[in-house]
Amino acid sequence: MSDSRMFDVTGMTCAACSARVEKAAGGAPGVQKVAVNLLKNCMEVTFAADADHDAVTADVCAAVEAAGYGAAPRVAAGASGAAVAAPAHDPAAAAAAEAAAVRRRLIVSIVFALPLFYVDMGHMWGWPLPGCFQGHANAMTFSLTQFLLVIPIVAVNFKFFRNGFRSLAHGTPTMDTLVALGATASMLWSVVRLYGVGICLGAGDLEGAHAAAMDLYFEGAGMILTLITLGKFFEARAKGRTTQELTALADLSPKVAVLLADDGSESDVPVEQVQVGDVLVVRAGASVPVDGVVLEGAAAVDESALTGESLPVEKAPGAAVTGGTVSTSGYFTMRATAVGDQTALAQIIRLVDDATSSKAPIQRVADRISGVFVPAVIAIAVAVFAVWLVVSGGDWTAAVVHGISVLVISCPCALGLATPTAIMVGTGRGARQGILIKSAEILESAHDVRTVVLDKTGTLTTGQPIVTDVLPAEGVERGDLLMLANGLERKSEHPLARAVCAYLAEQGADVLPTRDFTQVPGRGLTAMVEGAPALAGNRALMEEHGIALGPLEERAAALAEQGRTPLFFAWDGMLLGVIALADQVKPTSAQAVAELRAMGIRTVMLTGDNPRTAAAIQAQVGVDEVVAGVLPAGKEAHVRQLAQDGKVAMVGDGVNDAPALARADVGVAIGAGTDVALESADVVLTRSDLLDVPAAIQLSRATLRNIKQNLFWALFYNAICIPVAAGALSPLGVVLTPDLAAAAMSCSSICVVCNALRLRRWKPKWTKISS
Q1: Which of 291, 455, 665, 739 is catalytic?
Q2: What are the distances in angstroms from CA 307 to CA 28, 251, 301, 327?
Q3: Cα 223 from Cα 71, distance rounded (Å)
Q4: From CA 729, how far away is CA 735, in angstroms rounded?
Q5: pLDDT single digits (tens) 394-442
Q6: pTM score, two decimals?
Q7: Is-catalytic flag, 54?
């Protein structure tokens, strides 16, 4: 059973809410860590090692409910579910539902707020008013109309009052509390003045009734609620856009698969019904329904949505295909190997969803502030009210206006949205580029990497050796050398032997029959060919059998200096020639190293190869430092030593580099294709392109820069606007009324979310054009 569990949380509206929920859930027995995501209305609870998960789950739900919110454990989708459903809790669907609900509230609010504003403020702008609203004698009609117009606005937005006062009763005031207190103060003040109008009219004091009617703030309460709701509507729509990258991934999966029966008939079936082992048909223009292996046919498959690779990939029998990719041409049948939530696409979606649910360390700054923000604002508002009551000589109107403005303008929402919106957009954008980041903490850590350690084989190089040179001995025909090599190497399983056989197959070389085949560990192989002993292997094998290398010895040494591996072939005591192989450097490796250097990052190559081969690779790609002859276990020690000088990222293939990947501050598995189950890596690059390493670091830096901008704006806004609302600029004639304060508060949250959305346009930037 997992050591953590996701919970859906209801009732959260601002950073203060998420801080209270986190504190309440974290106090439950058996809880080790809690990470609350305000943007997605969820939290991840990590259980203690010896905790009873069911008991802790119940305690967490009870603790959150006691704090005034709701919590329910999220039920994971089973493997038999949809081939690729959105996460069990679809943030995009939730955001759309939230936007629709807020939109309905907004429409009702505007319908009544506009006439309310016209009646209350029209006379200030010279707008014509019906005669029943004009004159001192009509003060009651003027006042009562405003009261009746504000009631529907209060009713449709009663959520603010219900949540606000409930959280206040629990001792955990939130943004809703500030709005509720501000609107309630405006309403109570206006109701009192409304009675004043009636009392004055009853006493025949028309002047007093008119003065009381001009001192109403029903319009202020209505505009506060309407403008806050308008801000919530734009915020909900913007939050929905932050999930579009994740939704786009979920939308890649087709809904229908073409099932091929044993009798050759085809039928369309829902993709949910596809089972492992089923044979499916994929035609040009259709999406691959699930993961599988090509059985017959061939096609070009567009994998750009998953890997970012722009060119279609040719698929032949035996090739793996991934659900959600698109066949651009050709026809093939495939056998399903993974369905439901076991497909690569489902795992990618789950990985990105988990990353967006985690919390970056920088968010702790906002969390600490949010924990005390709302109580501090309430205290400031009370103090402002008292001070204005004194300095204004008992002017209750001025005191109420400034106190309400302080309550309404304060915005903890921006603090709560600053980090999760940027994290969600950044990780989603990375996924579309083939960069899968497993947590927000890693996304933040990667920006500060000072050294990138690179494995050689499969990282800087292709990991697939190819034949580079064929050198027949003097007096030996090239064809004779190739025939002997083909006969000897075809029985070997060594990677170099397979590379030689692949080359010989391309050359159409004949095969000499062999017998008595024997592999010699660390040397090569021996066999009998046409009744004479034959050898294939390194120089040591030749020396052991007394084979004179002659002039080829010097040429083979020169090849070795260039990082190539010479294989010697001898028959009947005579050297027939040398075939040299080399692991080719990837086309983008040199540029990737140059880009890292331009970013101020040092590069180190760790390899188990000999120093000559390592030096040859260094000359081609330009890494700053080389450490050769290192075993997989030794790589971890070197990474630990390098980490003493700053954060280290280790880039490897995720297999024999696992210890080093785990030791590094940021472990990067490159060339993983669609295999995202590399537990030892923090970042998975689906393509085998080293340029994705500097791209991942650039994405980290861009995301962290965006988070800092959001936090700065949120803190700067409150630091400036609260004093202004309190009346700091009153001597200059600048006074913020409650409705203007509400508009400013709404704009603050919208600005933060819109700034995070800029990350959707992020693309890596290179210092030079890729060749």
Answers
A1: 455
A2: 42, 16, 12, 15
A3: 32
A4: 7
A5: 888 888 889 888 887 876 667 767 777 788 888 888 888 888 887 778 8
A6: 0.69
A7: no
